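Sat 14:20. Reprocessing the chain from the morning session after the first attempt stalled halfway. Input below, unchanged.
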Amino acid sequence: MVRLGISVRGGDRRAEELALARRLGYDAAEISMDGTGLIFGGRLHADMLRDALSAFGRHDFWYSVHSPSSLDLRDRANREVQLALARSTLTFTRDLGGRVLVIHFERQSSDPRDEAAFTEAMLRLSDEAGDLLLGVENIEVERIEPVIECVARINRPNVAMTLDVGHAYLAAAHFGFDFLEAIGRARPLVRHIHVNDNFGRYDPLRLENFTLYRTQTPADTFPLGKGDLHLPVGWAAIPFDRVCAALGGYEGTLVHEYRAHLFLPYAEAAYAAARRLAETIEQPAAPHTRP
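Finished this time. Tokens:
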């Protein structure tokens, strides 16, 4: 079975976001820790946490959590606060009753000490996570292969891959690898999926200056179709029919990680497109399409 979810920011407008998700028919919700604003200096704010958990607890969604964009498990210079941030995010996920915590792989370092720091941190989190799944997500700044290798090396039952299809499409265009072949290789490790749409036009600013990259608005990026646009599925160029063939027979959660607040008049249509995708992807792959 494929469970269909939607990404929510989870801050001041969480009641509206969750009500919309429920009205549309989503089964799951993935909460952005960046959107909640619950963590200060690596620590959860107790009063804000209590209020947030109360609000989320009013809904019976299957929850997953997306870790903060500032989390960097390779950051050896700020090791203690990074680990505190990771543990606080894990604590929130557990208190929420969440089933998956998504952690960005980001860019592989040329320094083996950085990679060792990432692996060690993931092993620590795995020890503390219990049956909560840690989903290592591929990002467009790196190829998919290092993410596959990392998850296989960790080799823990509660550590899997979160496949972000949009990131994979951009990375394939930038680094020159076969998009669908890479998805096929990742398939055995994938237990959580993010879908949204883009045009496969890599924005070099993502690697050159991430801080400046994040200041861009849709007015800067949408007209030229550049970068990680987080459009509703079917709005751009990703060949989702072929993606479904590569992932056929998938069981798990499919999160429609698009900027829903920008497309409210089209929310019903976006849900319908994502639901069709979920129904297609759970069908067994034809023999000639299996990786």
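The domain at 2-289 is CATH 3.20.20.150 (TIM Barrel).
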